[in-house]
Amino acid sequence: MMENPLVKGIVGAAVLAALISAALLFLIWLERKFIGRLQHRYGPNRAGKFGILQMVVDGIKLLTKEDIIPEKADRAVFTAAPILAFAIAFLPFAAIPFSESLVVSNINIGILYILAVSSLAVVPTIMAGWSPNNKYNLLGGMRAAAMMISYEVPAALAIIGVVMLAGSLNMVEIVKAQEKIWFFIPQIIGFSVFVVAAFVETARLPFDLSEAESELVQGWTTEYSGMKFAMLLFAEYIHSILASLLIVILFLGGWHGPVLPPAVWLLLKTFAVMLLLMWVRATVPRVRINQLLNIGWKILIPAALLNIALTGYARLLLG
Amino acid sequence: MIHEYYVPVIAFVAVGVAFPAVSLILSRLLRPIKPTPEKLSTYECGEVPIGSAWHQYNVQYYMYAILLVIFDVEVLFFYPWALVYYELVGALTAGIIFLVIVFFGLLYEWKKGVLEWQ
């Protein structure tokens, strides 16, 4: 039964959607609690022990909240944006390997597929920015688009170093190639570039210029409420999970690790990277948009190009 | 085979669209619908909105978009190269020459002030 690709796809997609939703509820609670504690606040502490039921309560609230579509908005695009945002954020998970055999579609050009699909995320962002006919949405959407397209290039260039070492575009092969040494050691420049670029792509503090609540109200999600807002929020958060997974799979040895089963190692490492994301968010102040673009074009891209040249020579010399 | 790889992707598209669509329909059944003119007006910090947001807007990242196209094509050249350069004689040198040309292009744009957000 599981050999049929359609059955495999549907089962895999349903299981992953359920797992991701459960992980989201837990991670959003954890993030609020963790950042609260880092900032000497309590964080959520009313619903259930340690506020653990907070996300359930929030979910019910978002589900039953009145959903307002502004009169002057383009209704079709306004409604389509959250659905598309979620679908596009969810697509890359088809090619993510959780262990050597635990992968829904072991695409031979997996990393290229993931890059291609995740670069579509700029489309629903522009849709959500433009359709409500609201100036804050528009400004936030434009900023988000500039950020996303600027940081796609360094991320893709940094991955080339990994591909050169692994000699394959297949995600499983890339992890297998890290059995002796995790790629963040020989690829320290590429690793640094990719981590920064991945952090920007997740659009969280210190790079949440597309929301920047102190200047743009709520950025490109200003006019959204209720379940549509929840879907945009989910999509953003799934991008964070994907970024952490990619950092682990490409640079931190994927599922390699002693004693515990492979999939557990992968999830543990991903969780550690998520904690780092939260820690950075709680600690670092927001950068300005021109600073952000300068980091991307004037530091990260030259560094990534240098990394490709160095990796090429080093592999030829050292064999 | 190709279909073995991409049929599951189609299933992912279906589930990825169905999940938010079902949530939106579910919430439509549960939530109140009581629109008033004030609720439906565009949010502008409580003021009556001035004009529409759909007018000519200075797209500051126009140049970045052009640069993105250039660099994305370059990246696409590099992916197949990265897979085979190890086995082909002289491929590394050729790749580095291409890389240096692109880098000088970036330097030129930098000097022209294209990389400044105004």
Structural description of this entry:
The complex is a heterodimer of chains A (319) and B (118). Chain A has 319 residues and is mainly alpha-helical. In chain A, 66% of the residues lie in helices and 0% in strands. Chain A is built from twelve helices and no strands. In chain A, helix 3 packs antiparallel against helix 5 and helix 6 (135-166) packs parallel to helix 12. The longest helix of chain B is centred in the N-terminal third of the chain and has 29 residues, at 2-30. The interface between A and B is large, with 86 and 68 residues.
In summary, what is this structure?
Chain A is mostly helical. Chain A contains twelve helices and no strands. The model of chain B has no long low-confidence stretch (mean pLDDT 83).
**What's the number of extended β-strand segments of chain B?**
0
- Residue share in β-strands of chain B: under 5%
Radius of gyration of chain B: 25 Å
Q: What proportion of the residues of chain A is helical, as a percent range?
A: 55-70%
Name the structural class of chain A.
Answer: mainly alpha
The helix-and-strand class of chain B reads: mainly alpha
Order of helices and strands of chain A: HHHHHHHHHHHH
Oligomer: heterodimer
User: Strand percentage of chain A, roughly?
Assistant: under 5%
